[in-house]
Amino acid sequence: MAPEGNTASTSGPSRRVLLFPLPYQGHINPMLQLAGLLSARGFAITVFHAVFNAPDPSRHPAYDFVPVPDGMSGGSTDMAVKVNVEHIFTVNSSCEAPFRESLAALLEAPGGRDNVACLVADAQLLTLMDVARQQGVPTLALRTGSAACFRNFTAYPMLCHKGYLPAQESQLDEPVAELPPYRVRDLMAIGRSHQEHELMRKLMSRAVEAVRTSSGFILNTFDALETDDLMATRRDVAVPVFDIGPLHKFSPAASSSLLQQDRGCLEWLDAQAPASVLYISFGSLASMRGAADLAESAWGIANSGQPFLWVLRSDLVSGVTQATLPDGFDAATRDRGMIVSWAPQEEVLEHAAVGGFWTHCGWNSTLESVCAGVPMLCRPCFGDQMGNARYIDHVWRAGIALDGELERGKLEAAIRRLMQSKEGQEMRERAQELRRKAAEAISDAGSSSRLNIDQLVNHILSL
């Protein structure tokens, strides 16, 4: 659906917006959704992208794509969180020189500089935003997480000064008084060693600098979901803030998937009872620690008796090339489950047969579940996922946090609680209320996200 309002079209060539996503599925999707939104408003689109995890240009024929060497093309996506953090720094440094060259060539082409309005870059790409500004191109930062998550970033020095971080085992359940509703265990962290702490400190400080030195800050969220956190963000960053989500409702992401979707699962869902199926997916990067976790998960699912649709990536178990279910699982779940390697998640969550979502709580998955009105079983793995789970369970009360070791009995009970109990029905009703709020945010020209889109378009045109 295309937003209404002013467009960038003029009697001459369209103004051009340059985009540069971080090369992970959860970052590429929102950036290309934003591209679709801006294209619908009349902007021409050029997508600069790392060669690693490159999007497929043939799926977006209206856009120009410019590959930028990143020093890691052809690498595996099955990387530990620490390696992912280090890879973000690698992308910044390795892409710097080739991006400078490619951007200069675009600007020096006939009419190039006059037509380019700005660069929208992932907030983790500070170096590349600096390159653009050095060449006279205004920049806007896109954060693909929540407003609440970004408050973790801005508060990180305080959290360290107050002794919350690096986190100590004995402090994990302590509340963070300055940043409710978080506990210490919900804060962004990748480990407790000095080296890991310094990596996270550097990552966060660079992202905050990228936002504060930009001409505007774009967030994939909406006011009714994060009212207080958006107010705090506007106070903290001192640049224009545009909450224009949920982006996937304006511009679906299916065409930007890096993995092949199995659409046969939608036909299988058609044959299931309403709200009966537990959908299980841990996104494109999150993984289980070992085969024991996979086995406990499988038997918890089997013993619950609940119909299920499970996205079982080959690399779901850390350090294993092919995730393998335990013997007897197929026989125990025959005729009430389906397993696929990847699914069209937005369509799955919107399907009437889906009554619950076991998720890693990445922000894209969280938003998609909110918009579908589906309650969640939360098993966060890293990054912002712990904080997202805290909001789902404690603030929105639209799901259950699955803490501690994965154990089949505990998982079976949690699935039954979510899918079969009165408490689960109350969570489903609260999830449906979130769905209504999301629909209102995008419903018409006077809704909050559409007004913010109008303001973003006008802001870009004024740069």
From TrEMBL:
The keyword Cell division does not apply. The keyword Ion transport does not apply. Keywords: Transferase. It comes from the Eukaryota. GO terms for molecular function: quercetin 3-O-glucosyltransferase activity; quercetin 7-O-glucosyltransferase activity. InterPro entries: UDP_glucos_trans. Belongs to the UDP-glycosyltransferase family. This is Uncharacterized protein. It comes from Lolium multiflorum.
